[in-house]
Design a protein that fits this description.
about 140 residues; alpha+beta; about 20% helix; three-stranded antiparallel β-sheet
Amino acid sequence: MWAITRVISRRIHGTSDITVPKLAGFSIVSPKHVEVEYSDGTKFNFSSEFLRIHSPAADGKVRSIGGERVISGRRYVGIMSAEPVGNYGVRLVFDDLHRTGIYPWDYFYELGSNKFGLMRSYIKTLQKHNLSREPPPSRKR
């Protein structure tokens, strides 16, 4: 059974303790979109790019530039599958073969509550390092 109501303290961009309602639904709407709904009626829609760049995995194919975690070139990444992990979350498998991130239900709530600020911050970081959301051009052999 899903955890009832929990208090979490992950502190993403100033987020303090949040009471997370019980999960009501999770679905991959298309390879590019995920929908997560909670018992209080809150519903979040996420692009696969957004979830990929905010992967909770330690590796996540990250470039470290000046100590900043930067993932670029993931605008068109898709989700191939979602694998339940116990009662607390899901492992998303992306078509760039990233599969090590386990997304707890609490984390989806945090991401959804801060979605626009997180995306704005991501775009600013890319611009700061002269990177792009677009994938790099394919190499010609």
